[in-house]
Amino acid sequence: MHYETIIGLEVHVQLQTKTKIFCGCSSAFNPDNPNVQTCPVCLGLPGSLPVMNRTAFRLSLKTALALGCDIARFTKWDRKQYYYPDLPKGYQISQYDLPFSSNGFVEIDTDLERGETKKIRLIRAHLEEDAGKNLHDESGRGHDSHVDLNRAGTPLLEIVSQPDLRSAAEAKTYLEELKLLLTYIGVSDCNMQEGSLRCDANVNLWVHTDDGQKIATPIVEVKNLNSFRGVEQAIDFEVARQIEDWERTHAKLGDVAKQTRGWDANRGATFAQRGKEEASDYRYFPDPDLTPVTVSDEFFAEVKSELCELPASRRRRYRADLGLSHYDADVIVSQGDHFTAYFEQVAKLCGDGKQAANWLTQDVQRELNSRSLSIDAFPISPAVLGDLLKRVTASQITVKSAREVFDALLAEHEAATERHEVVELSTALAEKIIADRGLAIVSDTGAITAIIAGVIARNPKPVADFKSGKQAAVGSLIGQIMKELKGADAKVVRQMLIDELSKP
Ligand SMILES: [Zn+2]
Predict the structure, then answer these.
(1) Within this chain, do residues 50 and 162 fall inside the same structural domain, yes or no?
(2) Does residue 235 surpass a pLDDT of 80?
(3) What is the 3-state secondary structure (H, E, C) of 122-144?
């Protein structure tokens, strides 16, 4: 007998709009000033009327397109009835039987070394409003509870996956990929500390018995997970708990009602909450205050044209066109769209994707980490780095010299910052550093010949020694020539010098 873990995730994403979904109140995160971002609409006062925020719908549509969903050209709003202190209307405006999008998928990497991927199918993505927040006194002294309605009415996109995930690690990878995609297309900041991305996990088991049966156990929904680590830990905890439960009760799917559990991060355990309501308990019905939404061809095309290249496609392109490994392509794309834009510019300028990837994932990344900088604030522009690496590709300087220039540029920037000055780290400055330090590989034989002639003229004694048969005399001459040339190939110089001295 063995167990298979079955996981489906419901992800709630706060959309990056300035105002709430059905009123003009600010949707900014503002926990320090409770209840200041409210109005009759989001307070649910009688007589107030909601009006849909077009931007919220546009961002949702953009996301659904990026997720490969089918888009419904006609969609409507429904009231989901339940009472809770953070929901003053007594119902949440959501989408029930006609969500604006369905199907779609997220492709995740399951093995970077081997380049194995898996498609996690989506059931639907729909738009709804967020509730407020209940704040309970946890000091143990008082018994006060407060309600903050600043968040009530913030636009939320709910993305529901099929139960295609098979482990806590896969669930985490799925969330990371989804978060990356949402930030690439700019629909959400996905700030988990501020609750912009939250997740409910539906977890159960398939028990594969020795006689070939497959038995599903009851589904448990773990609510409100707000960190990737929390998702992983909660799933692992649930799997162990459900195996124990199965061995004790042998309860199958359908034997007991679906259970809802919370996650206690401090104890590292899930705990039982209310029994999960069935859809019929919510008494959904179409909201009579809001008109249904129809998506015109023009609007559809407009939103589609705003989509940028998605992370999965970028990884593929970097592997196919630039020859990067699965690992390097993943590291670069995971850093976000500004980092990839920087990388692409450097790769294009230097004409060597692998070299650009090495520099970006090692040298640049190391400097960013040690300075706690984002790529936008990195003092060396992609134009300057690209030009520097082009010199390496063209054998004008060595990789070692390029590192020296790179470090020197950063040192210049640091020194200027200390003096409260601004220095432009330009290509010209890099060129000057190369010249001042004599880092250029001299391949121009004319220049080498001129320097050799100069050294011969200034050193009659060693020249005479060599001509009288003392081969060793050439050493001191080469030393002087190399000092002037630096970047040149010593073997070539030696041969040229001997040829010159051997002339009758
Ligand atoms: Zn409002």
Answers:
(1) yes
(2) yes
(3) EEEEEEEECCCEEEECCCCCCCC
Same domain flag for 280 and 332: no
| Distance from the alpha carbon of residue 2 to the mean position of ligand 1, in angstroms | 52
How far is ligand 1, taken at its centre, from the CA of residue 42, in Å? 4
Question: How far does the centroid of ligand 1 lie from the alpha carbon of residue 410, in Å?
Answer: 49
Span 119-138, average pLDDT: 93
Q: What is the DSSP string of 260-297?
A: EEEEETTTTEEEEEEEPPPGGGGT-EE-TTS--EE--H
Q: How far is the CA of 41 from the centre of ligand 1 (A)?
A: 5
Helix and strand element counts for the chain (H, E): 17, 18
Of 251, 267, 302, the domain-final residue: 302
**What is the span of the domain harbouring residue 258?**
2-302
Ligand 1 centroid – CA 27 distance (Å): 9
Distance 32 CA to ligand 1 centre (A): 18
pLDDT tens sequence across 382-419: 999 999 999 999 888 888 899 999 999 999 999 999 99
Task: Among 392, 418, 436, give the residue marking a domain's end.
Answer: 436
CATH of the domain at 450: 1.10.10
- Residue 200 alpha carbon to ligand 1 centre in Å: 27
Residues 25 and 74 in one domain: yes
Residue type (1 letter), 337: D
d(CA 24, ligand 1 centre) in Å: 6
> Are 44 and 102 part of one and the same domain?
yes
